[in-house]
Amino acid sequence: MADEKKFVKEITPQSEDFSRWYIDVIRKGDLMDYTPVRGCIVFKPDGFELWERIQEAMDRRFKETGHRNAYFPMLIPESFLQKEKEHVEGFNPELPWVTEAAGEKLEERLALRPTSETMIGHMYSQWIHSHRDLPVLINQWANVFRWEKRTMPFLRTSEFLWQEGHTAHATEGEARQETMQMLEIYREVVEQVLAIPVWKGQKTPSERFAGAVETYSIEAMMKDGKAVQAGTSHYLGENFAKGFDIKFLDRDNQLKYVHTTSWGTSTRLIGSMIMVHGDDRGLALPPRVAPTQVVMIPVGPVKLREKVMERFDPLFDDLQAAGVRVRADLREETPGWKFNEWEMRGVPLRLEIGPRDVDKGEVVLARRDTGEKMAVAIDQAVEKIGELLEEIQENMFQKALSFRNDHSHLHINTLEELKGHITRAEKEAKVAGWVLAGWCGEDACESKVKEETKFTSRNIPFEPPVTKETCIACGQKAQHTVWFSRAY
Amino acid sequence: MADEKKFVKEITPQSEDFSRWYIDVIRKGDLMDYTPVRGCIVFKPDGFELWERIQEAMDRRFKETGHRNAYFPMLIPESFLQKEKEHVEGFNPELPWVTEAAGEKLEERLALRPTSETMIGHMYSQWIHSHRDLPVLINQWANVFRWEKRTMPFLRTSEFLWQEGHTAHATEGEARQETMQMLEIYREVVEQVLAIPVWKGQKTPSERFAGAVETYSIEAMMKDGKAVQAGTSHYLGENFAKGFDIKFLDRDNQLKYVHTTSWGTSTRLIGSMIMVHGDDRGLALPPRVAPTQVVMIPVGPVKLREKVMERFDPLFDDLQAAGVRVRADLREETPGWKFNEWEMRGVPLRLEIGPRDVDKGEVVLARRDTGEKMAVAIDQAVEKIGELLEEIQENMFQKALSFRNDHSHLHINTLEELKGHITRAEKEAKVAGWVLAGWCGEDACESKVKEETKFTSRNIPFEPPVTKETCIACGQKAQHTVWFSRAY
């Protein structure tokens, strides 16, 4: 036990080293483990359950909007990847290849899918012939591979889990509408379920998905001020339709290319959630995704435990019956040790009952988000807990929103000002955050910002808090107002 | 349309060529498609939805029995596979290998997992130290690869989807109990949800999972009399614990190896369900898994359609509100064409409404399983449909059970009798079915049966309908009563 107590104490403070803090909390929170395969992690049960709840929330909304799930082969023939030029250039450097199987060398190498536009494009070309075959609205839950140099658990791993939607439409308008609809679903799930505020917006051309006409994203701010691209939705135009010859006979008897979209979110959402809500005491999980929403801990002298358990057990059953994900910690450790442990694991609410609480007909509730403790009449506990879980969910979103707003800088207008801001933040060990900047639209200006500050364009928000007039790099008239920041 | 009408007519009769019948119905039923990757198929939405319902039914039961989901890397280092001798011998011939990634040759080849005992064994050795860490009860939903020579959609594909449970226990007794518990869950889901009767039993040593101490299975009879192993549960003893050094400090302060189990079911259940229930008219899907449970079709002259739709639309809404998976077919095709189409797709119930039905306040219901048609008062339709779906589910199970019993031969006692039986069946173009036979326990006798008849041992049923006294091959005293048949 002594060891484990030390573990809890050993979480590196965020202010000291955010990356080490992150690794500490996900390991001590038992969410993942490293494996001997380069960049591949195990999603342990508590980590995987977060993904299951994200899946549930996403999948329901996909189906409500008419999408159905399917499953396509993981292995992609090399020749498929070649069919869309930008696509292969974008993904080729990161691909793992199967070159032999069942004792024989393969005639053509097979890539482990980095994404499935090519395989699905090929199949759609077989399935789509007439306007009556459209739209095709399919999603896939799958593992994907990107053999990247630097990996980070959940945020960037060689193998990760995701969903990828792939749709085909008769018209550009309908495909563009689909792209926006799915981006909005992503925003809704990420804000409402994961309590992470995001900016919806358009990626600049340099940050587009390889092969897309337009890429849209939702972008979230971590507690170190860096950004995570939390979901993307692409309007692919006719690019893949041309590469894979996906044509249909329209009502006007003309043979036309379909317009396709694709959209994805992945297990990096787990990492984002941790970096948005966690603190120096450990994980902090929003009630809607927390594997355990309430942990019940009996307190007081062991010789009075029986008396406590007489109230403890029925309350546990009542909470479970009310659909609360409740867990009882009846281990031998001290209450204090358990409090630390469950705080570290991010459980939103702790419930304590001791002999004196029983006498008073009360229980004590402690919130992970605010640290607040309160006594509640035992016969009102179930109702109160339901309310508190909602309140915590909302409060966690509001806290994240305040943090984001506090670290979003709207009045930096030149590269010099930006550099000064970054230098100041570094000197004072403060979070540099995001900067809203004007951009003339030239790649060169975007590159200049990146080279000189490591800030990259996140997206061009649909509804920027202010509109910028001049390009941060060249001072010319701005065409766009863009979020810039460091990013994962 | 003419084309599609022809398609329906073109289902090869089961009696003519069962394999061709199978391919016809899964393609025309839109469940799958072939791909250019050898032995890999697309699970199309209607096929994948069957898998989603199986997943739902399994996953709920896994969780109710204390298991949690996790996710382990798909790529397995070659050295891991070497650690359990029988295991590597069993799987090595079927493995695809990643040999290069991101432009570089890998130092060690990585196999695409055929199953995950080795990767999970390695991780468990890191996680398990004390008796307090036990039991570990983890399941994984994943894609797996077995590069086999002969493939068949759903039943045997190079890539398939499955769940694999992996548990570790302090004692042999507990591990054996787990093995049996999971086998019983498989039986329950396959019988109650897929309406497929199965025999629970033990595999003979020659048919054991590579590396297991004991393998248990549920075995189902297809309509061509062949068997499908529909699920397996393995007691692995200390084999993998020794290979991967999974030890724990027990209460008695002794360092001991854990006892592990593994158990799996896969997308081959989809294929089994089709081969158990389908007929010459096409698919027949049990209501509990059918993507569409009721298809509603308006009939009668188009000029009276409006009158029909006044009753049609509210009934559709009522059924949906009652949780029935209902679909309306309002296409322009003739009712007769639609009837064929939905019969072919295996929808359990068809609902027709025409103008005369409206006058009488009735609807007509037609059952896929019996062909029976009945008029039902429209205001009782929702209730009646709920009852009928239950009835159809039960009837499909009973039909499959009768078929199985009719083709299970209990009184064949010698190899000569078995050969005679098979020859007779072939001559009369009848289903040879299964044979319950005595077995002395010698591998040589089991092999002899296989070589001379192509009948392989399926399992040693826990509760055989009769007990056999002598070995079918050598005539010596039987140690076991075994199901033999041809198998997929």
Output the keywords.
homodimer, 488 residues, alpha+beta, BirA Bifunctional Protein, domain 2, Rossmann fold, Translation Initiation Factor IF3, 8-stranded mixed beta sheet, 5-stranded mixed beta sheet, 15 helices, 37% helix, globular
Count of β-strands of chain A: 24
Name of the top-level CATH class of the largest domain in chain A: Alpha Beta
* Average pLDDT, all residues of chain A: 96
Q: Per the principal axes of the C-alpha atoms, what is the gross shape of chain A?
A: globular
The class by helix and strand makeup of chain A works out as alpha+beta
Which percent range describes the beta-strand content of chain A?
25-35%
Q: From the structure provided, what is the oligomeric state, counting identical versus distinct chains?
A: homodimer
Q: How many domains make up the coordinates of chain A?
A: 3
Q: What is the CA–CA distance across the termini of chain A?
A: 36 Å
InterPro entries (chains A, B): aa-tRNA-synt_IIb, aa-tRNA-synth_II, aa-tRNA-synth_II/BPL/LPL, Anticodon-bd, Anticodon-bd_dom_sf, Pro-tRNA-ligase_IIa, Pro-tRNA-ligase_IIa_arc-type, Pro-tRNA_ligase_II_C
Keywords (chains A, B): Aminoacyl-tRNA synthetase, ATP-binding, Cytoplasm, Ligase, Nucleotide-binding, Protein biosynthesis
Subcellular location (chains A, B): Cytoplasm
Protein name (chains A, B): Proline--tRNA ligase
